[in-house]
Amino acid sequence: MSHITPKRTYTFHSRLGNWTNTKFTEEQINTLILGFNYAVGRDQKYDVIDFMIDTENGIRQLDNKMQNTCQYLAKKKIKKS
Q1: Do 62 and 69 form a contact (C-beta atoms < 8 A)?
Q2: If I label 68, which of 25, 27, 36, 47 is the partner at 20 to 30 A Cα–Cα?
Q3: CB 44, CB 78: distance < 8 Å
Q4: CA distance 38 to 29
Q5: Per-residue pLDDT tens for 16-40?
Q6: H helices present in the chain, as ranges
Q7: CA-to-CA distance for 63 and 81, rounded, in angstroms?
Q8: Is the pLDDT of residue 1 over 60?
Q9: Is there a contact between 38 and 31 (Cβ–Cβ < 8 Å)?
Q10: What is the tens place of the pLDDT at every residue in 43-76?
């Protein structure tokens, strides 16, 4: 027969409370209620800007002859999105 030991639960830290005078808005409280794994999204405008910068940096690594063609194709794709 095997000996079965009960599982132990470990707590890394106790639940935090707001003991300050800081007042949260209803929207902030609702976001906090969603929990630790909730990812607050960014405005999509910034994602497009980051994509444009990354694309331009990648194109600059290409041969000079290919840069104009790739820039044209990238601009065309970005305008569609």
Answers
A1: no
A2: 47
A3: no
A4: 13
A5: 776 788 888 898 888 888 877 777 7
A6: 26-33, 44-60, 64-80
A7: 27
A8: no
A9: yes
A10: 777 778 888 889 999 999 999 889 999 999 988 8
**Which amino acid would we find at residue 41?**
G
Euclidean distance between CA atoms 1 and 41, whole angstroms: 53
- Cβ partners under 8 Å of residue 60, min gap 6: 67
Instruction: Quote the pLDDT of residue 69.
Output: 92
Q: Are 70 and 62 in contact (CB under 8 A)?
A: yes
Joined tokens for residue 28: 């902030």
Token pair 């902030």 in the structure block, residue: 28
Place of tokens 């497009």: 48
